[in-house]
Task: inverse folding
């Protein structure tokens, strides 16, 4: 019972805190009057913008927003890649060498795309400089890039100019991510998470053996990992490691931290379009999907494997931290896959098939809060498609937020639907065609299919978690996953910005009794059904062969 | 041959809506035969490629046919006994294609039949062309060019569209309007000044200036339109095509990648079953019916005796936010009748009647004639010799008309303030009583016309306006559809307000000039609204062109017809409301069938997937308890094929439109086509499965 | 437009044939020659349909 109460309390806290942060996000990204505490940042920001030769004027075309995004992201990536390939000895107490090129490329792209899929064991391959200068740096800027895109899209849908990417990036960092991460890091520090540049601790275990305990600047790393929906661990055990997630309280706060910015973004959207009813209903929709997933996963984990129930009681304990228990691990798995964080506090690979099904479904939908900023944009895309599909049925060219949905909008919105089949199903099919031994798949049956599909889905959805029984450190995995990472990040971003730019140029119409209102319970239900059908229909075959077949086999 | 074309466009029948038949249907059997032949002709890949969804089915059919001929083509281990199953799947796929083609051909068929009949009126004729030096030469009608001058005489077929520049004649226009009564055509008249090629002059002689090059005339455009030759996709159709192509692409990838994924479990499905899965998933129902819906929509408009220049215009009708309507002829019966004389300034009714008679004796408008009739009823006689007097025509500028008698006395009637101005300019005084009469008439919703004799004001004529019966209900419907109506009238604000209230329009512009029309339209468009309007006069042309949907009356001028994107052959302005309904129906039908098509996929998954991967442990998903894997797949395919002809009547007739609010409409249609689309295939596939079992097909 | 179409008509079959020849050996291990060519051809044609659908998505007006 306790896990369910804690989960309910946690979601209640998210609901209560989202409007507070939502108001702040609205102020930051719509240039509203600032609170006193961050007013002093303004000269700093304008100074920095002047330094890179930026005027800060809003872009007047999608390219005007996308080009700076691509250039800056390429630069960030190159810096990080260089640090990983030539790992210097400075701040590198164990003297790790540079990474193999394909691993370095995959790791860089993975952190650059806000995915943080790790095909390496960080504590055995990265020094503190690489962790700070490459990994943590990318965590901040990739989350800021996502937020910038999210708010550019929101601005477009509310009829405002798209904005200026550099300015958005800077403000996302200075007024949202850095202050919030510092606060959260302080809390984690107090809870016992290390924040040091010292070398790993060498201890003697109770059995008398020698053990190295990896330490480092974990508290801040952990904070941005959760808040920025990055999910890459300082250590490979991720949030199951006591140094990353020491107590039940830090576990709950980390779960809250994954949800809060995306939830606040939806709230801010309502303030942008001046219709908080709309944003509240979207929040209800997303929370509904999250809760449905969480219930499935938590119940599945608490019930455990029926074939083992005569020997083991207490649910599916394989791959769990007993500090968190089965229920809260199920919740964490749902939230981490829903929000595209990808941090884990237990092994998803060892979870029940229904939990894996939930996780995969979240990865396919990408809107159960979804990525930092981009999740909100995806939600708008699905709402747009729902409007288009059902709006025709009221006998009018469909309108969303007072703007007509026409060919260009449908093209851009549906391109987003194509990303996953292209970057998940095709590489997964190629990999599976190669056979288990070639691809390093550790399970021959349906679970093997889940492992492969999950890996690419996680990459393309920019999530980062994985069914880690997979031997994914090979060049094939690194390179093919890199493609999915890039395709799953920049193609949708381009389509989203183009979509938003097209929408903002349309005249806004006053609603009449003949227009389909989108801020009603009926339409929210329709959106949910469209979401589930469009998401489920595409992936039902692979889900059936993977987790569903596994679950049915277990049940029978 | 007027008799053969009369059936095409009979005058719109009156009476209760459901009892009206707009078109004598072309013989059903001929249409069906033609459609069946066309359905096979459309299997040509060069034609099939135009429809992305059905082209994928086409490719799948070819593949399955190849695998029927040689089942071991793709898998050496396959047995020859799979040939029977492959043949059955190929047949259902072929049937799917043919049904879709048939639907389109059926929709096109009616238009083609109409076009053929119209073409018969285009017999080549000889025309008498007048050369600049005045001499006449005989030329073939196809040699006439815009700007040529021709002479036509009684019995001739008019060789091309033109404007009358001299003469008066009666013309039989039944070829295009279906109206058998001849129409009077004369030079200089706004409405009666244009003639259409292909119509027949019955008597007398006309001199015409040709206004259209060969092949560009009104009948040519009509042929092209009903035939669908100029049919291009409408914006909504294009957007829908994109979405359908994306869904097809998604499913193509999902199915194509399934083979290696299932191969990992050592259970690769056969290629024919994968093709079956693909065809079941891609939205064939809407893909097959999409173009038929559009063509049928145009056809329905034509059945209302309205010629639309493009499907785009019909579709735009569904989106209209504001309807700009003239009061006269649309909201009220065209003829205002004089009801009463209200004298002022101490004159008697009889005196007023005499002056009114004098002011109206040259006025041939229905109003004018009704004034004369009323005056005669009151025993008034004409105060002057009509032969020696001269008539003063009404103009929008002066807003009055009348007559000048031989002794120079000016009899005038017109808008009250216009007459006031006239009287003052002649040095007269305006009695205060006039304003009371004016208000009295206005409050009754009538039009007050002031009457004067030189500088003396005699009183006011009360012209009674009769609001068309049933118009209020139609405006209520429009309001529920979210369409605002704006009434334009030359009346004073009080009268306009009364009429507007009684008719139930949302807004009105009183004392409107032609420029006001354009201003109103532009103002609405600035707010992003789509505006529809009707018009007939040549001064309506700019407004018709400015409006998103402009409907010109066939009785109107050539300029108005050119500027409009629809021409109503019956010249009935209220038809705009019907066209709006058709436009909405078109969109609703597309949306409903798309929703239905996608919702069907759920059941098809549950039918095909467990059958496809028999040994993987998915038996629990076989919720329909279908007999065998092969029968399950075949049932889904048969359902997929049969649903197309089952929905053809719906696609051609359109989903019934009810004037409800968007929310109610959505709820209704979602329930019928969304929930229905989920449930129907579960039942259908199960029934077909039982039938297949009973017939021992597999 | 016509030259463009001719262009596609020219290179698409070429691509399918070339692709078939390149891909056929991949299936050699499991299937005899005829079947491996047929499978490779199927793969290429599927890819071609996919390209066609992308063309429809990009320029729906032309279809």
Result:
């Amino acid at each position: 019972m306790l896990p369910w109460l804690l989960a309910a309390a946690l979601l209640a806290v998210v609901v209560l805190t989202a409007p507070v942060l939502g108001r702040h996000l609205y102020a930051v990204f719509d240039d509203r009057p600032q609170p006193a505490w961050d007013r002093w940042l303004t000269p700093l920001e304008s100074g920095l913008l002047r330094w890179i030769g930026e005027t800060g004027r809003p872009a007047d075309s999608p390219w005007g927003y996308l080009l700076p995004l691509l250039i800056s992201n390429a630069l960030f990536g190159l810096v990080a890649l260089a640090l990983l390939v030539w790992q210097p000895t400075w701040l590198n107490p164990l003297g790790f060498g540079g990474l193999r090129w394909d691993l370095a490329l995959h790791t860089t792209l993975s952190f650059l795309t806000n995915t943080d899929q790790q095909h390496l064991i960080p504590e055995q391959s990265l020094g503190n400089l690489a962790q700070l200068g490459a990994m943590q740096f990318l965590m901040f800027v990739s989350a800021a890039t996502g937020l910038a895109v999210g708010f550019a899209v929101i601005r477009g849908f509310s009829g405002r100019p798209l904005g200026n990417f550099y300015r958005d990036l800077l403000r996302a960092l200075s007024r949202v991510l850095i202050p919030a991460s510092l606060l959260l890091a302080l809390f984690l520090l107090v809870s016992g998470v290390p924040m040091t540049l010292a070398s790993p601790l060498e201890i003697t275990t109770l059995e008398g053996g020698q053990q190295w305990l990896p330490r480092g600047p974990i508290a801040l790393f952990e904070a941005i990992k959760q808040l920025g929906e990055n999910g890459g661990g300082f250590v490979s055990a991720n949030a199951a490691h006591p140094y990353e997630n020491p107590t039940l309280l830090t576990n709950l706060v980390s779960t809250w931290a994954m949800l809060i910015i995306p939830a606040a973004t939806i709230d801010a959207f309502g303030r942008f379009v001046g219709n908080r009813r709309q944003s509240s209903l979207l929040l209800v929709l997303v929370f509904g999907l999250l809760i449905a997933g969480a219930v499935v996963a938590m119940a599945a984990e608490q019930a455990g494997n029926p074939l083992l129930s005569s020997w083991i009681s207490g649910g599916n304990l394989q791959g769990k931290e007993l500090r968190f228990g089965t229920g809260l691990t199920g919740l964490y798995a749902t939230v981490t896959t829903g929000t595209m964080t990808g941090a884990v506090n237990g092994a998803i690979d060892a979870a029940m098939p229904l939990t894996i099904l939930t996780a995969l479904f979240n990865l396919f939908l990408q809107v159960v809060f979804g990525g930092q900023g981009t999740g909100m944009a995806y939600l708008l895309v699905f709402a747009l498609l729902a409007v288009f599909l059902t709006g025709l049925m009221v006998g009018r060219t469909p309108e969303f937020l007072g703007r007509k949905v026409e060919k260009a909008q449908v093209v851009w919105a549906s391109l987003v639907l194509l990303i996953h089949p292209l970057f998940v199903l095709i590489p997964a099919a190629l990999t599976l065609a190669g056979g288990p031994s070639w691809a390093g798949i550790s399970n021959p049956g349906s679970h093997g299919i889940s492992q492969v599909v999950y890996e690419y889905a996680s990459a393309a959805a920019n999530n980062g978690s994985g069914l880690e029984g997979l031997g994914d450190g090979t060049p094939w995995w690194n390179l093919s996953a890199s493609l999915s990472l890039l395709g799953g990040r920049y193609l949708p971003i381009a389509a989203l910005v183009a979509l938003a730019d097209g929408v903002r140029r349309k005249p806004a119409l006053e609603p009449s009794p003949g227009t389909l209102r989108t801020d009603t319970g009926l339409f929210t239900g329709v959106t949910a059904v469209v979401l589930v059908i469009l998401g489920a229909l595409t992936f039902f075959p692979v889900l059936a062969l993977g987790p569903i077949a596994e679950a049915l086999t277990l049940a029978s | 041959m007027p008799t053969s074309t009369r059936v095409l466009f009979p005058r719109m029948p009156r009476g209760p809506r459901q009892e009206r038949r707009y078109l004598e249907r072309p013989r059903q059997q001929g249409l069906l035969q033609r459609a069946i032949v066309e359905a096979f002709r459309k299997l040509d890949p060069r034609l099939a490629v135009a429809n992305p969804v059905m082209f994928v089915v086409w490719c799948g059919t070819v593949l399955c046919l190849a695998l029927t001929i040689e089942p071991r083509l793709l898998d050496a281990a396959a047995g020859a006994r799979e040939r029977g199953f492959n043949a059955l799947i190929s047949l259902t796929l072929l049937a799917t294609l043919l049904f879709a083609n048939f639907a389109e051909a059926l929709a096109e068929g009616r238009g083609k039949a109409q076009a053929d009949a119209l073409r018969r009126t285009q017999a080549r004729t000889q025309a008498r062309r007048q050369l600049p030096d005045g001499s006449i030469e005989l030329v073939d009608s196809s040699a006439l060019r815009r700007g040529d001058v021709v002479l036509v005489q009684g019995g001739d077929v008019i060789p091309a569209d033109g404007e009358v520049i001299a003469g008066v004649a009666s013309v039989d226009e039944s070829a295009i309007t279906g109206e058998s009564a001849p129409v009077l055509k004369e030079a200089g008249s706004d409405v009666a000044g244009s003639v259409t090629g292909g119509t027949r002059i019955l008597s007398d002689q006309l001199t015409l200036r040709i206004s259209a090059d060969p092949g560009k005339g009104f009948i040519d455009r009509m042929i092209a339109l009903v035939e669908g030759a100029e049919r291009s996709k409408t914006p909504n159709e294009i957007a829908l095509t994109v979405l359908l192509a994306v869904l097809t692409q998604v499913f193509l990838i999902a199915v194509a990648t399934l083979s290696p994924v299932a191969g990992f479990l050592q259970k690769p499905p056969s290629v024919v079953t994968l093709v079956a899965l693909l065809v079941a998933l891609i939205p064939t129902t809407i893909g097959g019916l999409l173009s038929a819906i559009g063509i049928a929509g145009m056809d329905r408009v034509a059945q209302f005796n309205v010629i639309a220049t493009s499907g785009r215009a019909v579709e735009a009708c569904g989106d209209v936010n504001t309807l700009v309507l003239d009061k006269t002829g649309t909201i009220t019966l065209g003829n205002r009748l004089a009801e009463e004389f209200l004298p002022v300034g101490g004159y008697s009714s009889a005196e007023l009647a005499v002056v009114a008679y004098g002011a109206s004796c040259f006025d041939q408008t229905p109003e004018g004639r009704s004034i004369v009739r009323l005056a005669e009823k009151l025993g008034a006689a004409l105060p002057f010799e009509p032969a020696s007097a001269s008539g003063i025509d009404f103009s929008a500028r002066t807003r009055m008309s009348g007559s000048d008698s031989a002794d120079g006395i000016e009899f005038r009637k017109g808008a009250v303030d216009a007459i006031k101005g006239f009287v003052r300019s002649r040095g007269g005084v305006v009695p205060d009583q006039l304003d009371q009469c004016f208000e009295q008439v206005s409050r009754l919703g009538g039009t007050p016309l002031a009457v004067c004799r030189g500088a003396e004001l005699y009183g006011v004529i009360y012209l009674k306006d009769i609001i068309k019966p049933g118009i209020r209900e139609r405006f209520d419907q429009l309001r529920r559809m979210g369409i605002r109506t704006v009434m334009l009238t030359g009346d004073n604000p009080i009268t306009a307000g009364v009429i507007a209230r009684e008719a139930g329009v949302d807004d009105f512009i009183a004392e409107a000039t032609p420029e006001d029309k354009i201003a109103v339209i532009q103002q609405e468009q600035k707010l992003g609204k789509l505006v529809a309007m009707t018009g007939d006069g040549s001064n309506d042309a700019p407004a018709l062109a400015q409006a998103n949907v402009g409907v010109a009356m066939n009785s109107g001028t050539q300029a108005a017809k050119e500027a409009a994107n629809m021409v109503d052959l019956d010249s009935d302005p209220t038809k705009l409301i019907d066209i709006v309904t058709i436009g909405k129906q078109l969109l609703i039908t597309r949306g409903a069938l798309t929703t239905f098509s996608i919702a069907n996929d759920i059941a098809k998954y549950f039918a095909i997937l467990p059958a496809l991967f028999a040994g993987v442990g998915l038996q629990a998903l076989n919720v329909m308890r279908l007999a065998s894997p092969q029968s399950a797949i075949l049932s889904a395919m048969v359902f997929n094929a049969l649903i197309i002809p089952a929905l053809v009547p719906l696609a051609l007739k359109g989903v019934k439109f009810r004037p409800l609010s968007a929310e109610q409409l959505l709820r209704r249609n979602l329930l019928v086509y969304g929930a229905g689309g989920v449930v129907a295939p579960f039942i259908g596939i199960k029934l077909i499965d039982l039938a297949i079992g009973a017939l021992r097909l597999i | 437009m016509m030259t463009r179409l001719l262009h596609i008509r020219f290179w698409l079959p070429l691509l399918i044939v070339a692709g078939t020849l390149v891909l056929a050996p991949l299936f050699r291990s499991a299937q005899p020659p005829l079947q491996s060519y047929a499978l490779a051809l199927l793969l290429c044609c599927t890819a071609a349909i996919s390209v066609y659908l992308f063309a429809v998505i990009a320029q729906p007006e032309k279809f």
Q: What stands out?
A: The longest strand of chain B covers residues 456-464.
